[in-house]
Design goal:
There is one protein chain. By secondary structure, this protein is an alpha+beta fold. The chain is 24% helix and 36% strand. The protein has helices spanning 2-25, 29-32, 62-67, and strands at 34-35, 38-39, 72-83, 88-93, 96-102, 117-127, 130-140. The strands form two sheets. Strands 3-4-5-7-6 form a five-stranded mixed beta barrel. It has a two-stranded antiparallel ribbon with strand order 1-2. The chain is elongated, with a radius of gyration of 30 Å.
Length: 142
């Protein structure tokens, strides 16, 4: 007599649990995937989107860049006035000069001389000899 009662109780518990889990899966997907201010929309959804903030780094002057701390990513606009070493150059804008380092593979085909205005992006580093910008990207200014 105990076996049918135990089987019945087990079946009732199984169906109860199934209805609880079924309710969980029918919630609004938009609410379920909203975490920490970011919305995740499953790929099957008709809504598409992406990052809406600015990924552009603002151009700063050499003077402003020199006031920043070490390991800061900067974007500068000016001219490369001279070559100081194998991959080291002097960069100038209307506020001052700074040493820059451009690895041979970071030029990406750009050819620039002292008369060309360029935009460089890279990490500002402080060394014993002063400030240097390790350039990651260079392009001719329009």
């Amino acid at each position: 007599m105990k076996k049918p009662l135990i089987l019945t109780l087990m079946l009732v518990m199984a169906f109860s649990a199934q209805s609880v889990f079924a309710h969980h899966h029918t919630r609004n997907l938009q609410q379920e995937f909203h975490h920490y201010g970011f919305d995740y929309v499953p790929s099957g959804s008709s809504e598409k989107g992406g990052f809406t903030g600015s990924s552009e780094t603002e151009i700063v002057s050499v003077l402003e860049a020199k006031k920043l701390g070490s390991s800061v990513y900067v974007k500068l606009k000016g001219k490369i006035t001279s070559k100081l070493g194998k991959e080291t150059y002097l960069f100038k804008d209307n506020t001052g000069t700074v040493k820059i380092e451009i690895d041979d593979d970071d030029w990406n085909g750009v050819k620039a001389g002292p008369k060309d205005t360029v935009i460089i992006e890279g990490e500002l580093e402080r060394e014993q000899g002063g400030v240097i910008v390790d350039v990651d990207k260079i392009q001719l200014a329009n």
